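Researcher: I'm preparing a figure for a lab meeting and need a structural model of a single chain. I don't have an experimental structure, so a prediction will have to do for now. The sequence is pasted below. Please return the structure as tokens so I can convert it later.
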Amino acid sequence: MAWLVLVISGLLETAWAIALDRSAGFTRLLPSVVFVVALALSMGGLAYALRDIPVGTGYAVWVGIGAVGTAVVGMVALGDSVSLPRIFCLLLVVAGVVGLKIFH
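Model: Understood. Here is the structure written out token by token.
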């Protein structure tokens, strides 16, 4: 259960990062509210998962999921540049996250 919560929390990290960008410095209400709610849920889930998962592993997986998710949303939906080197680097992060789970 801790791993499932950790993955969901990592996905919520992507949500709050995108909402933060869309809030335009907290000048837009809806994205600002989404940011606060997603951030609270993401941190709460991380805290829950860290009861069973070592902090180094849990935090690295959480950040990796959030970073890759945010980069992918940026490339697919927000006009960030897409290139083979960028995709390769994201795959390296995914490989690291999977490795941390396997060798936990």
